[in-house]
Amino acid sequence: MAKRMIGGQAVIEGVMMRGPKLAATAVRDAAGRIQVETREVHSINEKYPILKKPMLRGTVSLIESLVIGMRSLSYSAKMAGEEDEQLSDREMAVTIAVALVLASVLFIAIPTAGAKLFSFATTDPFRLNLLEGVLRLAIFLAYIWGISRMKDIRRVFQYHGAEHKTIHCYEAGLPLTVENVQKFSRLHPRCGTNFLLIVMLVSIFVFAFLGWPNLFWRIVSRVLLLPVVAGISYELIRVAGRTTNPVLLQLVKPGLWLQYLTTRPPQDDMVEVAIESVKAVLPPEEIPAGSGEYRQVEAAVPQQTNTDEKLAEAAAS
Questions:
Q1: Using the 8-state DSSP alphabet, how is residue 73 labeled?
Q2: Which of 10, 46, 56, 103 is 20 to 30 Å apart from 80, CA to CA?
């Protein structure tokens, strides 16, 4: 039987997994029980099939991943006892908007403004754009290294490792048990870390040919071209996740190396949570025989909702 394409992310004391039709967030609560929230997901490209086309589907996937990821983080914070209630749709949209603005400042405005400092060495627009890209990449790597030193983030990165190991085990067709999952690598070629690093590298080449206008127009041009960069990066990561070509596998190795920072070896109880998250997005008949039973609290699938689609449309606009 062909394996479903499953991806996910680490959340607070848990793991979110997303399949073609369902997204599930499994969290170990303060009492040590595994709580699971499962919801149907509906992509905006179901309504507008043109958005499934190459170069467009990358931007759609990125926006929808942000929406689902924020919702899962909100749920996990509540279940882990760190928040009293989940974010409302309005609060979530505001949070995503603020996060995008801060990311634009850190990875767009600061690098392109800082590249001007290199004008003493060259005034060639092409070289200044390349130096800007190198500076952006350096800031990104420093940011990843910095947050990886934080104690709470290191625990999230352990759940990130559990997510990858469990997906590897599922893709290998083995029963989803702690023993089987722990045998696999915590690095995965479809990881969001890979995607972000590819975005940084692709942006260097895309922006290199834009000339060197004033700061305002440099920032505007980079923001407007983000969908192009995301589209190219998404297609590359799709190829990387399926290829056996040795040349392409070598090209994605830097993204795998970076995962040594963004993942940590998980504890067995973390793997149990990740297993429940994967099982929750699979039809019962597709769960490998012999998979472990770790969930202590059952959660029903909510009624069909198009809230995620509405949030994605709002974020896109």
A1: H
A2: 103
Q: What is the pTM of this model?
A: 0.84
Q: What are phi and psi of 80, to 5 degrees?
A: -80, -5
Residues in Cβ contact with 58 at an 8 Å cutoff, skipping those fewer than 6 apart: 227, 230, 231, 232, 233, 234, 235
Q: Report yes or no: 204 and 229 within 8 Å, Cβ to Cβ.
A: no
So what's the pLDDT on residue 299? Answer: 47
Question: Of 142, 122, 132, which Cα lies nearest the Cα of 219?
Answer: 132
Contact 131, 116 (CB under 8 A): no
User: Higher confidence at residue 52 or residue 182?
Assistant: 182
Return the closest-CA partner of residue 278 out of 193, 179, 162: 162
How many Cα atoms within 13 Å fall on the side-chain side of residue 288?
A: 23
3-class SS of residue 244: coil
DSSP element (H, E) containing 27: strand 22-28
Q: Residue holding tokens 């405005």?
A: 109
Average pLDDT, the chain: 86
pLDDT at 293: 80
The alpha-carbon radius of gyration of the chain (Å, integer) is 20
Cβ-contact 268, 157 below 8 angstroms: no
Interstrand relation of 14-18 and 7-11 (parallel, antiparallel or unpaired): antiparallel
